[in-house]
Each structure stands twice: as structure tokens, then as C-alpha cells.
Amino acid sequence: MKILIAGVSGFIATNLVEYYLARGSADIIGISKAPKTGSEIRRIESLSAKSNGRFTFRPCNLRDSMQLKSILDKEMPDLIIDLAARSSVPESFIHPYEFYKDNVETVVNLVEWLRHSSPSTRAIYFSTEAVLTATGSGAAMEHLNPMNPYAASKAAAEQYVHAYNGCFDEKIQIVRPTNNYGPYQMPNRLIAKVIVNCLNKNKFRIYREALPPTKRWWTYVEDTCAAVDLISSKGEPNGVYDIVPKDRLCVEDVVHKILKMADCENLLEGYMEKRALDKEAYVLDSAELSKLGWKPKYSINKGLEKTFEWYKKNLNLF
Predict the structure, then answer these.
(1) Which of 13, 37, 41, 56 has its CB surrounded by the most CB atoms within 10 Å?
(2) Class of residue 53 by CB neighbours under 10 A (exposed 0-12, middle 13-18, buried 19+)
(3) pLDDT in tens, 166-203
(4) Which domain holds residue 174?
């Protein structure tokens, strides 16, 4: 089996490559823009080194439909998993048109290739919980209610996927993960940031949450990878699947769990004002995924312990 993973230099995608390589179940083609930062370069090199020839990286700007077509025509993958996206909400307010181009035009390029070149190829589109409203059933399209430019671009991409599934009988599934954490996550994200500060003994501050604080879902990335694997093999060809773990905690509770685990409770030196346009908790529904037999393997405590140990051994990557 040949799997093409778009956006392979990202955190979840990197873990997905390692997940498939560990199981020996597929050859992986990874595409994304040419890596620019040292951490991205080391990440791609690490995947290649441990793959025993089963992982190949191909630089590709997914905005360039002809470049994308050339790679897909040559590789003819059995499954495409599209994780390529811009995902910084604050940045989306500054450069909304760039988010449209990176998060919508790229998906149109992909579904057009499927339509004209390989309608039998299966695909999974990675969306986000942020497309959803705060009320209603998570998996229902009529409850899409994006509240920022990033979420709007992802919701628009979902609509294209649904339209092409319906009009051209494509076989594209949609997954909506919640807050993921684990190996390879960049230290600008909450859990990675706190762990790296603990390991470096650096004091830090966090945003003050509104009262009452919002409880969010936190998913260890390996659980997301297992869900994707299950969805691709057993899910409905056009299904929509929310990936929802058991644990819901507010940001401050997560931070204090890490500080206690690292014995670094003195490093939190205070709070910043509430982040502008901070998100609410979204309504998700894991019933469809549960029907396939998925349930999370990692509790928040076990996931944080594994994540902490990984950063302790791999701090040089950042």
C-alpha cells in the first residue's frame, strides 16, 4: 500500500508517518513546502533515516496545481491524507487571504486531481473542531459555524469535499481532531511550551482564562493516528468523524499537571491578560468513530508523561 501524506513537516503528520512505519503496513510519500527551519529539516531527515527506504520526501507547494498533479500522477497513491494547512488563529486575522489560498485553494487542487485522474483513490481531509458551533451535533454540516478566518477557511474546504463527494462520487473522509499534543510539537503550543520551559528551567507566563474557564479536550497524538488508521480501513467512504478523547481540562489544570510532574511549580511566574478572541469549547460527537471500535488509549496523565520523556530525550531538535 502506498500512502501520500500532505503537509508532512507538521506535527501530527510526522507522528502519522512514524505510526505507519512502525507497523510496516505502507510505503509513505511525504509532500510539503520545502522545509525552512532547522527543526523542520531535522524532522524530515529523522523520518528518512529510520524508514529503511519506505519514506520519501517530495517538496511541493500545494497551491501549484501542476506541480501537485505531476507528483500525484507519478506516485498514484492508494490513500491520500491531507494535513497541509495554515493553523495560527491570530495570524489568520492579519493575513486572511493567505489562509484562503493555503487552506482552500490547495484542497480544490487535490479534489480536482481526484476527479480527473484517479476517482478511485481514497482520501482523508484533516479539518478542525473550530469549524463547529458551540451548540448542536458536531458531525452535522448544518452546524458549521466558524468564528475566525482560519476556521472559515477550513469550513470552506469541508464544503468543497462534500460537494465533490456528492457530484463526482469521490471517496473523501473528513476527520476533526481536538487539541493534540505529543512528540515533535513546536514549543509555541501550550503543552510543548510548558515542557520545554521546565526542561530549560525558564520562568514563563500563561494567558489568563475567562471565568468560568473553558474545559477543552486534549488528545495524545498517537490516539489520533490510530483513529485515522481505523477510519481509512473501516469508515464510510464519505464519513465525517470527530476524534474526541475522554479528558476535558482547562488550560491552567493542564499546566499545573506538567509543573507538578516536572517538579517545577515555581516556574509559573504569572498571567497575561485574556487572549483576544479566545475560543469556546466546541460541540463534537465521537459516536460515529466509536462505532468503528475506536477509544483513546492514553489518559491525559499517561500522555503527558510520554510527551515529557520524549522532549527530555529530543530537546536538541528544537
Answers:
(1) 13
(2) exposed
(3) 999 999 999 999 999 999 999 989 999 999 999 999 99
(4) 2-181+218-246+282-297
